[in-house]
Amino acid sequence: xxxxxxxxxxxxxxxxxxxxxxxxxxxxxxxxxxxxxxxxxxxxxxxxxxxxxxxxxxxxxxxxxxxxxxxxxxxxxxxxxxxxxxxxxxxxxxxxxxxxxxxxxxxxxxxxxxxxxxxxxxxxxxxxxxxxxxxxxxxxxxxxxxxxxxxxxxxxxxxxxxxxxxxxxxxxxxxxxxxxxxxxxxxxxxxxxxxxxxxxxxxxxxxxxxxxxxxxxxx
Length: 219
Prior knowledge:
The chain is of the alpha/beta class. It has a single domain, classed as Rossmann fold (3-Layer(aba) Sandwich). It is built from five helices and seven strands; from the N terminus they run ββαβαβαββαβα. The chain has helices at residues 31-42, 70-93, 106-116, 163-175, 194-208; strands spanning 8-10, 19-24, 47-51, 99-104, 124-128, 149-155, 179-185. The protein has a seven-stranded mixed sheet, sandwiched between helices. It is globular and about 45 Å long.
């Protein structure tokens, strides 16, 4: 039996890299999918990317909007451990670089839970079509660092992340003290739009220039 391949690393190494992005794929996707559908569209050449790989193609089996069962809690904890290890390893390879934690769909949900759990914080978060995992009655952690720049996106009729769940994530992270910009796109399919790519590009360029992301890309 062969083991699954590890994370996908893209972009420059050494002093050519000015910022670091850990990008988390969604359910049923791979790092290579994110390379094709997100990273290749960014047009940045001074950003190092690390794309973790979920075992068996999913970070957890439950729907993000369902109440957390004991099994779902255990799977989420394992996924957060996996992501924390990936972030630590990436920072070891690229020490001192500002870090954007980003993800799409289930990967965005996991990234939101990562910062909410109070794990070693990135310099900014971009959650493309994500929400909190579980429901408010689950007693979810709320330990995101105050002042963390956060970009959240969604669609008004997304089949996986309802608009209400996206709104819950906005309220949760804003209530934790994050600086949040949120975009809800009418009629957008379950994909990363050009506007979201422009926002991600701008956040990375700001970090590479040594400043906090301004999140000013047009809607």
